[in-house]
# Entry
Amino acid sequence: MPEPSTYDYAIIRVVPRVEREEFVNVGAIVSCAARRFLEAQIEVDEGRLRAIDHSIDVEMVLRHLAAIPIICAGGQQAGTIGQLPQRERFHWLVAPRSTIIQTSRVHTGLCEDLAAVMEHLLDKMVRSTC
# Structure
């Protein structure tokens, strides 16, 4: 069994009308420097977004969200930010913003299985319980 490792995570949010501060959780970013792991998963419930703002441009939001896992993976396809070291990419992704796509504060945990952490975060924080 692998040694437990510390990891950091943030929840990805869509804030359709920033002035109202209402948001829908749409994904998670998990980073573990010890295992050289940086991953994001996105799951958008369009109905929940439209419930907050019926005029939201969902296609535009999806295009912008699609960049997050690409930046996590790094490489040429991720542009200039994708060339940064993994930890710097994580910090760039979770930096506070006043835009339609934001992240929660960064939280820390300890685990042996990072894939299980991602599934747990998506189940608990993103996927609808209805």
